[in-house]
Amino acid sequence: MKINILEDYQELSQAAATILIDRVKKNPKSTLGLATGGTPKGTYQQLITDHHQNGTSYQHVTTFNLDEYLGLAGENPNSYRYFMNAQLFHHIDIKIENTLIPNGVTMNTVEECQRYEQLLEAKGGVDLQLLGIGSNGHIGFNEPGTSFESRTHVVDLASTTIKANARFFPSIEEVPKQAITMGIGTIMKSKEILLLVSGEQKKAAVQRLLSGEVNEEFPASILNQHPNVTILMDKAAAGQGDRHRVLNGSY
Ligand code: F6R
């Protein structure tokens, strides 16, 4: 794993955007795996600025998002479809039909999960997957205990995840209890992974990830076995200033 520690969230976002832009320029037909949540917002902002200033084009790019809440339609401001449209897709030249997100209001979740996997396979898989991490080590919405072999599936969200995400909803009661997420096996098939970690509240998760122990109770730990992972973290997440701080470099 390559580890790069950035001064703060702003620098982290800039560094992540630089990597994404580089991959898109090298392969304008890239398939990108995207994440929602608070962490990638700054990265998306940088991509939009670069698109307007330097004309990086997403016309031939396809994107697959990691997850979507069950029961929320795309018009719902709390859905991840709405988030992605507002935070990125509506501000760059990507074709909206090339932006794939699981359908949260499907009548048949089994079929929807299979359809998503098939679409991914037909595209030849994800070239670069952007990830965030939950404090409990979740990636996508794969909560602790999820099989490392899992493919796109329905999950019951952990109470800690519901609490953490309540900040985006009018009240905690309105946070959906279930979601569709790419599986850990699906994520691990990506050719390259870029994990973004920001803030002191993620410090413990970073330490556990970098301990090297691989365990289904800490889903992100599987990233230790992926051949091409870069972790970008800010100083707060790296615990810089602490005695057991993380150092830049390869592990
Ligand atoms: C989002 C996702 C989640 C988040 C994680 C961190 O699509 O799949 O795994 O990346 O919950 O969220 P933030 O960035 O809000 O701390």
UniProtKB/TrEMBL annotation:
Pathway: Amino-sugar metabolism; N-acetylneuraminate degradation; D-fructose 6-phosphate from N-acetylneuraminate: step 5/5
Gene Ontology molecular functions: glucosamine-6-phosphate deaminase activity
Annotated active site: 67 (proton acceptor), 136 (for ring-opening step), 138 (proton acceptor), 143 (for ring-opening step)
Domain Glucosamine/galactosamine-6-phosphate isomerase per the UniProt entry, residue ranges: 10-226
Family annotation (Pfam families): Glucosamine_iso
Keyword Metal-binding carried by entry: no
NCBIfam families in the record: nagB (TIGR00502)
Official protein name in the record: Glucosamine-6-phosphate deaminase
Gene source species: Mesobacillus maritimus
Lineage: Bacteria, Bacillati, Bacillota, Bacilli, Bacillales
Encoding gene, per UniProt annotation: nagB
